[in-house]
């Protein structure tokens, strides 16, 4: 099985990549990012590409994929909708155009195309357009994600928040299971979807955990 992972250096992307590399049924992992990675895993190939609005130049390296995990994301803080849309929407649709197989889009709890909140509206619109495609597409909507196995967020404020709130995770898991997952469970669930596991098209944290 060949899986393409967009955004392998982000917190979610790191989790997805880790589970791909650990799974014996995944023979090849192609990661795509803007900068080089020090890869040591024999079944990982990293592709450096700067212009995600056009993936045609690297299409050959992404061909014959069994699944595509779109884990790229950017914080909406301080951004206009026009600035937030390319990574969240445009590049996600371009990845779906070029990469075949099962497509898994990492969205977020609260995404809604009709929302008054900018990030939720853009993610919701992206979800709707992807789910309308004539191919296997799944949307994962994690809420609070606990980093596991040494994984950290690249965003400073997120690193602080996750560090500060880590002690709350057991409590949140008990009182709000629909909103809590881990990088490990999220990655495992995505790999399960790539393998053809039966699941709803849109998965919240409790469904992610069940599938993992």
UniProtKB/TrEMBL annotation:
SUPFAM superfamilies: NAD(P)-binding Rossmann-fold domains (SSF51735)
Name by which UniProt lists this protein: Epimerase
Species in which this protein is naturally found: Lentzea alba
